[in-house]
Design goal:
Order of helices and strands: HEEHEEEE
Largest sheet: 6 strands, antiparallel
Distance between the termini: 33 Å
Shape: globular
Structural class: alpha+beta
Length: 150
């Protein structure tokens, strides 16, 4: 699947560590994105050769990338620009539940919602579904950190 230009302009990530292909829906509080795993990704060679699975940590990372897009769009719409040039860095992950495997050829749907914000901390709830079934559910906190070169 091709990566949409909107995703590429919203994230600093690039293949092979980009886990969002398209943005399906977005507003100030919620984003829905998708990613198709082709089977050509290098991690399938070792995870696991006889029964390849997308590593759970990469499914979590996919939701965090979707959340970063949501946060960027939200901050762009805000009048205050105090976070210009800041990077979203994960500070905490909780309540992670893995329920369904994701395999080569699967397309995941990520739904991420902004639950709370305070100063430069943003709390998100996220889920990943595959074939209509919940694969992963988690909560995480992102801190906006000023870059040294910004």
């Amino acid at each position: 699947m091709d990566i949409s230009p909107e995703v590429l302009s919203s994230l600093p990530h690039r293949p092979p560590f980009l886990f969002v292909d398209t943005i399906n829906d977005v507003n100030d509080q919620r984003i829905v994105c998708q990613k198709t795993f082709t089977g050509e990704e290098a991690f399938f060679q070792g995870h696991y050769p006889e029964y390849p699975l997308v590593p759970g940590v990469l499914l979590c990372e996919a939701t965090m990338q979707a959340g970063a897009i949501l946060l960027k769009k939200r901050l762009e719409n805000a009048a205050e620009k105090k976070f210009d040039g800041a990077l979203p860095v994960v500070a905490k992950m909780t309540d992670i539940r893995f329920r369904q495997s994701v395999r080569p050829g699967d397309t995941i749907l990520m739904e991420v919602a902004l639950v709370e914000s305070a100063a430069n901390a943003f709390t998100f709830s996220a889920s990943v579904s595959v074939n209509g079934k919940n694969a992963v559910r988690l909560k995480y906190v992102v801190m906006l950190v000023k870059r040294n070169d910004a």
